[in-house]
Design a protein that fits this description.
The chain has 4 helices and 3 strands. It is mostly helical and 101 residues long. It has one domain (4-100). It has a 3-stranded antiparallel sheet. β2 and β3 form a beta hairpin. The longest helix has 38 residues, at 63-100.
């Protein structure tokens, strides 16, 4: 089982509004688990929650803005990964061509 923290504990520790956390869950930016009617967030999602809370409270970004920024950052990461793979393929091809000379 994944390590997790209850939503009530998150609200207490991070000092965020329950409604904000609920909006993140409703928009599927966070994916809670429920056990015995207690909702939990897995530890792996905490960096996302911290980032969303910083954008919202420190930069005053609203939920639609958070969704857009998150989507664009994910797309950038996917493009970086694709670029890395393409560069590895080019390097392999160049090495293969040099071996044939």
């Amino acid at each position: 089982m994944n390590e997790r923290i209850s939503i009530e504990e998150i609200i207490r520790l991070y000092k965020i509004d329950y409604s904000f956390l609920d909006q993140l869950i409703d928009s599927e930016l966070l994916h809670p688990e429920t056990e015995n009617s207690v909702r939990y967030i897995i530890y792996e999602e905490l960096p996302h929650l911290e980032r969303f809370a910083n954008w919202h409270y420190d930069l005053e970004v609203n939920l639609p803005g958070i969704e857009i920024i998150h989507k664009l950052l994910n797309q950038m990461e996917e493009l970086r990964n694709e670029n890395r793979k393409l560069l590895q393929n080019v390097t392999r091809f160049e090495t293969w061509e040099e071996a044939d000379l």
